[in-house]
Write a structure and sequence with these properties.
The chain has 410 residues and is α+β, with helices and mostly antiparallel strands. It contains twelve helices and ten strands. Helix content is 40%, strand content 19%. Helix 8 packs parallel to helix 10 and helix 11 crosses helix 12. The chain is elongated and about 100 Å long. It starts with 24 loop residues before the first strand and ends in a 5-residue tail after the last helix.
C-alpha cells in the first residue's frame, strides 16, 4: 500500500465542491470523519477545515481500493483522487453544502494512521473542558473551532486592509521591556545576562505608541498580544489580543472613521453564516459623542460663549476636560487607594486597594474636572472676561491661575 503523498497534492478543498464541479478530476486531502459499508459500496466522509465530502468505493469496480478503504478508521489522514459525480436525486443530503455531489475514488493513500481518539471530533457531542484542553489539537479539529479560527482571521484581515487604505503603518514593538505602571501586575522575565534584573511583558504597547507618534510615524496600527497578571474574570485572562491604533495631528484629524466600519464588516458577514444581530450598535462619531456627558457640557458652554460673542473650539475643550479630569483623578485615586489599602491590611491589601481606589478615583476625578472647567468658564462669562477665556484655552498654566483666582476646586 502506497503511503506517500507524492503525486497526490490537493487540487481543491473538501468543502468547496458543488454540482458545478461534476465530471472534474480532483484530489482532496484530509481526515476520515466516518465510514459506512453498504454491502459492496463503501462511503467515506473526508473532512478538512472547509467542510466534508463523501467519497465512494465500489468493490465491483476496484476491489483493491475497496479493501484499503475498508481498513480506514476515524481520523486517519488520507489523500484521495477521483471524479466528482452528481448524486442520485434520492441520495442528495441537503444538510451538507456538498450534499449534491460525491467523489468516485480512483486512488487512495493512507498518509497516517490514528489510534481511537479520547472523544468524538464532532460539535454534537458534549466533552469535558479539561479533556478538550488536554487534547487541544483534537478539539481544534471540530468544525465550530475551525470556523471560529477562520472568522477571527478574516475579520482581522478586513481591519488590516482598511487601516492600510487609511494610511496606517502596522509596526511591531518589543515584548521584553522595562516595567511601567499600568492597571495590573506585570509578568516578569529574569535576565540571564544581567543577574537580578528582570524584563516585563507588556500590558499594552502604550509607551511605544507615544514614541512612534513623536517619531513622525503619524498613523500607527498594531494587533498584538498583551499580558496582565490579575485575577481571572469573565472578560479577562492572562494574555489577550488588542487592536491598538493612533493618529497624530489630532486637531486636524481628531477622529478617524476607522474603529467599527460597518460597511467593511457587512461585506464579510453577508458571505458567512454569521449575522450582525444588532446593526444599530455601530455608531458614527457624532452619534457616539453626543451621548457623552462631556460633549453635552461642552456644547452648552460653547453656545453660551457664542451668545456673548466669544468662541471655543469643541476639540480643544474636550481635551481640557480630559487633562483636568486625569489630574484630578490621579489625586483622588491615590488618596482613595491608600485608604483602601490600609483598610484591607498593608501586606495583602495595599496593591488591590490602590488599584481599585485609583480606578474609582479617576472616574470621580474626571467628573469633577469637567465641573471645574465649566464653573471657571461660567465665571469668566459672567464677568465678561472674553480675552481671558481665549487665553485660558491656549495656556493651561494661566487656566490654573484662574481656577485659583476664583477658588474653584479647593
Amino acid at each position: 500500500m502506497n503511503t506517500s503523498i507524492h503525486g497526490m497534492k490537493r487540487t481543491v478543498w473538501c468543502g468547496e465542491l458543488r454540482a458545478a464541479d461534476a465530471e472534474k478530476e480532483v484530489t482532496v486531502n484530509g481526515w476520515c470523519e466516518r465510514t459506512r459499508d453498504n454491502g459492496g459500496v463503501l462511503f467515506l466522509l473526508l473532512r478538512d477545515r472547509t467542510g466534508t465530502i463523501q467519497c465512494t468505493f465500489d468493490k465491483s469496480v476496484n476491489a483493491e481500493l475497496f479493501d484499503i478503504a475498508f481498513g480506514v478508521r476515524t481520523e486517519y489522514v488520507l489523500a484521495i483522487r477521483g471524479k466528482v459525480v452528481l448524486r442520485d436525486a434520492n441520495a442528495i443530503n441537503k444538510k451538507m453544502p456538498t450534499g449534491e455531489v460525491e467523489i468516485a475514488v480512483t486512488d487512495i493513500r493512507v498518509l497516517s494512521k490514528s489510534e481511537t481518539t479520547p472523544f468524538e471530533i464532532s460539535d454534537n457531542k458534549e466533552v469535558n473542558d479539561q479533556l478538550r484542553l488536554k487534547y487541544r489539537y483534537l478539539d481544534l479539529r471540530r468544525p465550530s473551532m475551525q470556523r471560529n479560527l477562520a472568522l477571527r482571521h478574516r475579520v482581522t484581515q478586513i481591519a488590516r486592509n482598511y487601516f492600510d487604505e487609511q494610511g496606517f503603518l502596522e509596526i511591531e514593538t518589543p515584548m521584553l521591556q522595562k516595567s511601567t505602571p499600568e492597571g495590573a501586575r506585570d509578568y516578569l522575565v529574569p535576565s540571564r545576562v544581567h543577574p537580578g534584573k528582570f524584563y516585563a511583558l507588556p500590558q499594552s504597547p502604550q509607551q511605544y505608541k507615544q514614541l512612534l507618534m513623536l517619531s513622525g510615524v503619524d498613523r500607527y496600527l498594531q494587533i498584538t498580544r498583551c499580558f496582565r497578571d490579575e485575577d481571572l474574570r469573565a472578560d479577562r485572562q492572562p494574555e489577550t489580543t488588542i487592536r491598538q491604533y493612533q493618529s497624530d495631528f489630532k486637531y486636524i484629524v481628531r477622529y478617524l472613521s476607522c474603529g467599527n466600519d460597518r460597511r467593511k464588516l457587512d461585506e464579510y458577514f453577508q458571505t458567512t453564516e454569521f449575522q450582525l444581530d444588532h446593526p444599530e450598535a455601530f455608531l458614527d462619531w457624532l452619534s457616539a459623542v453626543t451621548n457623552d456627558r462631556r460633549y453635552r457640557k461642552a456644547k452648552e458652554l460653547i453656545e453660551t460663549t457664542e451668545g456673548k460673542g466669544g468662541k471655543i473650539d469643541m476639540c480643544v475643550l474636550l481635551d481640557m476636560y480630559e487633562e483636568r479630569g486625569e489630574a484630578r483623578g490621579i489625586e483622588k485615586g491615590i488618596a482613595q487607594g491608600e485608604a483602601r489599602g490600609i483598610e484591607k491590611g498593608i501586606a495583602q491589601g495595599e496593591a488591590r486597594g490602590m488599584a481599585k481606589g485609583i480606578s474609582q478615583g479617576i472616574l470621580q476625578g474626571i467628573s469633577q474636572g469637567i465641573e471645574e472647567i465649566n464653573a471657571l468658564y461660567q465665571c469668566l462669562l459672567a464677568d465678561n472676561r472674553m480675552e481671558d477665556i481665549q487665553k485660558a484655552i491656549m495656556d493651561t498654566d494661566y487656566q490654573k491661575e484662574l481656577l485659583q483666582e476664583y477658588r474653584i476646586g479647593e
